[in-house]
């Protein structure tokens, strides 16, 4: 599928505590809060609409699959950032004491699709991956 204009995605995920979701997505990741109610919060997730819904029975640890020598959590979601924004976020997450599932590093080094990547969980066990490419045109490289 090819599109001329990238449109924001909408993703709703379960969390087990709305206050902790505000701490993680607002204070730690720096996302601006949008509309909210007692059981959900809209976030500006790097220009996309992420909604954290209170659903404690739906949270937990993901499955893992091997990729490039690491155990990648499945499911996961995230955003492709600029290299500079990726470095800033890695520092912010580390400073907040968030444990990385996969430490910030360069994956597929010297190969098509070379990318910076890092994985960590939010406070409800949702896995996030943030990537960056020196050359964004290699995003879908084979």
TrEMBL record:
PROSITE patterns membership: VOC
SUPFAM superfamilies according to UniProt: Glyoxalase/Bleomycin resistance protein/Dihydroxybiphenyl dioxygenase
UniProt protein name: Glyoxalase
Top-rank lineage group of the source organism: Bacteria
Pfam families: Glyoxalase (PF00903)
Matches recorded under InterPro entries: Glyas_Bleomycin-R_OHBP_Dase (IPR029068), Glyas_Fos-R_dOase_dom (IPR004360), VOC_core (IPR037523)
Domain VOC, chain residue ranges per copy: 7-133
Organism: Pseudidiomarina atlantica
